[in-house]
Amino acid sequence: MADTTPIAHAEPLRVGSLFSGYGGLDLAVEEIFDARTIWFSEINQPIARVFSHHWPDAPNLGDITTINWNTVPPVDILCGGFPCQDVSTVGKMAGLKPGTRSGLWSHMAAAIDALQPEWVVIENVRGLLSAPAIRTIPEGDNDEQRNPRGATPSGATPRGVESDSWHLGETAARPLRAAGAVLGDLADLRYDAQWIGLPASHVGAPHPRYRVFILAHRTLPNPTGVGRFTRRGELAAGESAPWHDCTEPSDHRPRPPRAERLPAPGRVREPVVVDRAALRRWGRYAEAVTRWEQISRRAAPSPAILSDETGPRPAPLFVEWLMGLPSGWVTDACHALTTNQQLASLGNGVLPRQAVAALRTAWEMLNS
Q1: Cα 296 from Cα 265, distance rounded (Å)
Q2: Taking a C-beta distance cutoff of 8 angstroms, is the pair 92, 86 a contact?
Q3: Which helix (H) or strand (E) segment is 41 a member of?
C-alpha cells in the first residue's frame, strides 16, 4: 500500500469535529495529524461552551441533522463519536438504525460523502461490535438529511466486511452488526478503514473503559478538492458563515501551545513503587493510581464529594484526572457547568491518550 503518513504538511491539516463533547477526540487527532480544528458540531450548550473555550476560533455548526454541507468549509479530517446510547451494552441495545440516537451515524456518513475528507476518525463504545444494525428506511420516512447515496443501496447489505472472529459482516447465522454497517458504509464511500478496540488501561489509566476506534483513508483522489481549500479565515465562493451559538467566556484567551494542551505522558510500563501513604489512601488501587499519577504527571485529586443529603458521589476533578485531561479542562469555573453537567460531559467523553494510541496502531495497520 502507498505510504499515507499524515505528517510533513506545509500547513496544519484542517479538522471538522462532529458530536464534539469536550474535545477529547480532537486533542488526539490534532496531535496525530499535526492538525487544527476549524469547526465543530455540538447540540449540548453547556458542553459546547467548554469546546468553544478551548477552540475559540472554531464556530459551532449546531445540530448535525440541520447542517447544509454545501455551505461548510472543507476539511482534511472529519472526526466524531456518534451517540452510543443504542449500541452500548449498558443501554437497550436497540442497535444502529433509523430513529435511534445512534442512527445519527447516517448524518455523519452524509457529511463524509459531501465533504470528501482525506481522513475519517470515529470513536464509539464496545457495543458497536455486537449491537445489531438495520439499514432499511421505515415506511413514510422522508428525512432528506439521511445519507441518500453513501449508505448501502436498497436490497443489498455488506457481507464479509470482517473475516475475523467478531463476524461484523452479515451471514445467515449472524445478523449485520453496527460496526459492520459503519465499515460497509465507509467502503461504499471509497474509504479504506481499519478498526481497533482497546481499554484505557492499555495506556496506563486506572480503569478499563474499552473503546472502538476506526481510522479511514480515502482510497481515490478527490478531483473536486484540488485547489479548493481557501486561506485561513476565508470562505470559499458560495459558502455562508456557520453560526456560532456559544458565548465567549469572560476570561477568553488564545489556546495554549499544543504541548500544554496534551502533555507527553510518562512511560506506561515502568515499574511502580507504591509508598505507604498511597497504600493507606487507596488500598488495593494504590498501584493503579500511582502509575496513572506518574503517567499523567498529576497527583490524584480527592475521588468523592461527600454530602449528607445525597451521600458520596464522584468528584468531577477526579473523573477529569481519570480521563487524562489537563486540570480544569471541564471543571474550570469559567465554564459555569453544574456538577451533574461536568460528570455527564466527562462520562461521555474520550480519553485523549487512549485515542492517540489507537490511531497510531490503526495507521500502522493501514500501512502494513
Answers
A1: 6
A2: yes
A3: strand 35-41
Listed in sequence order, the residues at least 6 apart from 364 whose beta carbon sits closer than 8 Å to its beta carbon are none
For the chain, how far is it from start to end, CA to CA, in angstroms? 7
Listed residue (1, 16, 3) closest to 73, CA to CA: 16
- Per-residue pLDDT, averaged over 316-320, amounts to 97
Cell 445467515 appears where? 172
Report which DSSP code applies to 305: E
Q: Quick check: 120 and 78 in contact, CB under 8 A? A: yes
- As a whole number of angstroms, the distance between CA 42 and CA 90 comes to 23
Task: Return the residue matching grid coordinates 510533513.
Answer: 8
Counting residues of the chain whose pLDDT is more than 90, the rounded percentage is 51
Grid cell in block for residue 306: 461527600
**What does the pLDDT look like over 20-32, one tens digit per residue?**
999 999 999 999 9
Tell me the average pLDDT across 191-199: 94
> Considering just the CA atoms, what is the radius of gyration of the chain in Å?
21
The C-alpha atoms of residue 315 and residue 270 are separated, in whole angstroms, by 28
Closest C-alpha among 72, 86, 63, 81 to residue 122: 81
